[in-house]
Task: structure prediction
Amino acid sequence: MNQIKKSLILSRHKTSVALEKEFWIALEEISKKQNIDIDKLIEKIDKKDRNGSLASAIRVFILKNI
Result:
């Protein structure tokens, strides 16, 4: 599967995250349900205790929230 890389700003720092298309779609659906911007949702995920990369943390978050 090809990954899609998106740039965003987390805590005033520019970064990028590469995820598969399906994960971006799921993240968008979760953000709509929670009525929160995707960047803000990713920032919340980033601030939680996590092991590994931000991309891995996002994938685990999605699995827990679908």
